[in-house]
């Protein structure tokens, strides 16, 4: 599932921000990040007009999809207008998928993948505001309106603008390791990883730990104690709330439960240790809050897609310099 050449298909009258997401994630070159060959394609020929009135001169035509191992449709013009995507672009997507390329849509780009037939019989998501329209226009697609992204291995779809960033970072993480994804996320000043199953329409992202904020301070306190036994009751007590109030406020803020968040953070910590240390998996498990490697393994496999040992073989360096490029198996996010 590794990739190095990224084709980004731009259509006329598209939203500007969503169009820029894959370029922002994959386009910047720095020594601490993988280098990608990004090909921005005018999928309908000629300059690309955006909905902001800005015209873009994409340097490539549809023939540049050939040879790309990752093909992204970052967005589409408002689907309620009823314009069908051009058949030439749909055929280019079908050919890319048939030869083994990973095909991705962000936000409204899911309408293009659905029109190509590639999503028939598969789960997929898009912006929650357009999920009903997607389901009515393409009844063979299993629309999931309440997740950030869906990873089906060779085809991935995401929700709205920030969901597209999450999915692109997830692609980097699964193919090039957590260190590479974290480096890109730091440059974008965005969380390095949000699970695909997290709810789309949440009031706020997970609060950043901040002094004086009982909620954020509690999360910071927990993150510094992942090697210890922690319960939701412990978190609630730290936040000076009842268990019921803490559960309710946490779910409102994050779209997930405190227990799910804590488990997710433990697995992320195990990933970092596997990448940057040579410590035995048994010790990594205990330092991440699991009783043993046996206890870590099913949760790690469910979240990352491979066993801890296989992950280390791909991304581990045994030192603090971070992980090198490698290939990890796809993880399904439902």
Task: Provide an overview of this structure.
By secondary structure, the protein is α/β, with parallel strands linked by helices. The protein has 2 domains: 5-188, Rossmann fold, CATH 3.40.50; 214-315, Orthogonal Bundle (Arc Repressor Mutant, subunit A). Helices cover 42% and strands 10% of the residues. It has helices at 16-26, 87-98, 110-116, 131-137, 161-176, 178-188, 214-223, 232-238, 243-254, 258-276, 281-287, 293-304, 308-315, and strands spanning 5-10, 37-42, 48-49, 55-56, 70-73, 102-105, 123-124, 142-143, 149-151, 155-158. It has a 6-stranded mixed β-sheet, sandwiched between helices. A two-stranded antiparallel ribbon has the order 3-4. Helix 8 (232-238) crosses helix 9, helix 10 runs antiparallel to helix 11 (281-287) and helix 10 (258-276) crosses helix 12 (293-304). This is AraC family transcriptional regulator. Residues 315-334 are annotated as: Disordered. Keywords: Transcription, Transcription regulation. It holds the Pfam family DJ-1_PfpI.
């Amino acid at each position: 599932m590794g990739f190095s050449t990224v084709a980004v298909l731009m259509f006329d009258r598209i939203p500007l921000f969503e169009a820029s997401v894959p370029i922002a994630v994959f386009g910047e070159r720095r020594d601490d990040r993988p280098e990608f060959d990004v090909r921005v394609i005018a999928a309908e020929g000629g300059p690309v007009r955006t909905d902001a009135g800005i015209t873009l001169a994409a340097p490539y035509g549809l023939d540049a999809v050939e040879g790309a191992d990752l093909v992204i449709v970052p967005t589409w013009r408002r689907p309620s207008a009823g314009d069908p995507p051009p058949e030439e672009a749909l055929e280019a997507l079908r050919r890319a998928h048939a030869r083994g390329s990973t095909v991705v849509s962000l936000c409204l780009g899911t309408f293009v993948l659905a029109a190509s037939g590639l999503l028939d019989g598969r789960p997929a998501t898009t912006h929650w505001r357009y999920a009903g329209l997607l389901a009515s226009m393409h009844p063979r697609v299993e629309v999931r309106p309440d997740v950030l992204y869906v990873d089906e291995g060779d085809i991935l779809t995401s929700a709205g603008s920030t969901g597209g960033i999450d999915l692109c970072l997830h692609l980097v993480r699964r193919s090039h390791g957590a260190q590479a994804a974290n480096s890109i996320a730091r440059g974008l000043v965005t969380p390095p990883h949000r699970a695909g199953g997290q709810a789309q329409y949440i009031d706020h992202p997970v609060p950043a730990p901040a002094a004086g904020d009982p909620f954020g301070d509690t999360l910071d306190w927990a993150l510094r104690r992942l090697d210890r036994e922690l319960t939701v009751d412990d978190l609630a007590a730290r936040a000076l709330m009842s268990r019921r109030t803490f559960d309710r406020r946490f779910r409102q803020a994050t779209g997930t439960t405190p227990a799910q968040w804590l488990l997710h953070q433990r697995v992320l910590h195990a990933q970092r240790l596997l990448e940057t240390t040579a410590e035995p998996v048994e010790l990594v498990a205990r330092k991440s809050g699991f009783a043993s490697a046996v206890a870590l393994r099913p949760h790690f496999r469910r979240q990352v897609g491979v066993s801890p040992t296989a992950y280390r073989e791909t991304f581990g360096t045994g030192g603090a310099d971070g992980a090198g490029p490698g290939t990890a198996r796809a993880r399904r996010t439902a």
